[in-house]
């Protein structure tokens, strides 16, 4: 009877597509490691539980509060894959009305913008769905980040040669027509724009600028400091809200709009600069000044233990999801690492598709994690 119950339980587990192990990582148990090692560097992954012996993807729980985010039956599986090129790197945006997800490619010529339709999962016999590369105009020169802006995609381009980095609105349906909304600071070009978010209250666009275009050989030497800007699309005003970074990358706001987060990926300095382990791989938090929306009271929020913290997203409870060197790291609003969605390889960015669905961009794959959390709405 007992054996039969166990068998039925095993079958039930096997039937839940993508159900993945949940490993409780005891922080006190690895506070002291064998002095003879092995230790690791920030480019290598970490599984502190020597008995886990698991193949990613799975969930690592570093704080029991992560269980409420995962819910009772968390699952994760690949839903899109193409091993021939990095089609899903960054700039992921979910469109609620159509259940489409857009994303941008990385480390390849042109970095195309592609889309999937999550409705296709309902009819796919294999659980895998196909992506479509968007036929965008030549306005879009090497795309990186993206967010939602007034029901359009807002693409953040890095520029190419002398062509300026830009913020570009793109219609989400054919013919995917676009409008450039910003490409300079009082006549000066940006370096290589990276990512953007819309502020939940003012609806101004906040965006980051890095020098990766120069370090990767397709932009001129730095033209202006790497900093964070605020653009008011109504008045056209653009202003600097924070500086003092190495490579300010992902940007996000708490649901109330009072706290800003900036991920600094300075540890990575592109093809020419390589990896500099003493540079920031750090997420900073700021207060958003009520009158000016300048960022003040800068503090270290968290340091990514693996790789660099890149794309940022929040759930409705204000927990921060960070694309990192081994998957998604999830921090509570106080900066405690609650857990990881551990895929064992880098995931630069992720996006909530509403409630209980988080999509992880992993270059040649997209993972769908089904967890209990709901994404903060970006449809502002
Ligand atoms: C980290 O260690 C691995 C394995 O020894 C090595 O291949 C890699 O180059 C190291 N990375 C850095 C940035 O030092
Ligand atoms: C992968 O992408 C390449 C390049 O676009 C394409 O030719 C190939 O058909 C794709 N393979 C699959 C399995 O979708
Ligand atoms: C994806 O594309 C391939 C090649 O065109 C096709 O055989 C397959 O049926 C498609 N899959 C889905 C889920 O549409
Ligand atoms: C796309 O074209 C339509 C029809 O002309 C226009 O209303 C819309 O504003 C355009 N969208 C963008 C982002 O350029």
Automatic annotation (TrEMBL):
Superkingdom, natural source: Eukaryota
Entries under InterPro entries matching the protein: 6-blade_b-propeller_TolB-like, Oryzine_lactonohydrolase, SGL
Residues annotated as signal peptide: 1-18
Sequence intervals crossing the membrane: none
Keyword entries, A-Z: Signal
Domain SMP-30/Gluconolactonase/LRE-like region intervals: 91-357
Gene3D superfamilies in the record: TolB, C-terminal domain
Protein name: D-lactonohydrolase-like protein
Species this protein is from: Mycena metata
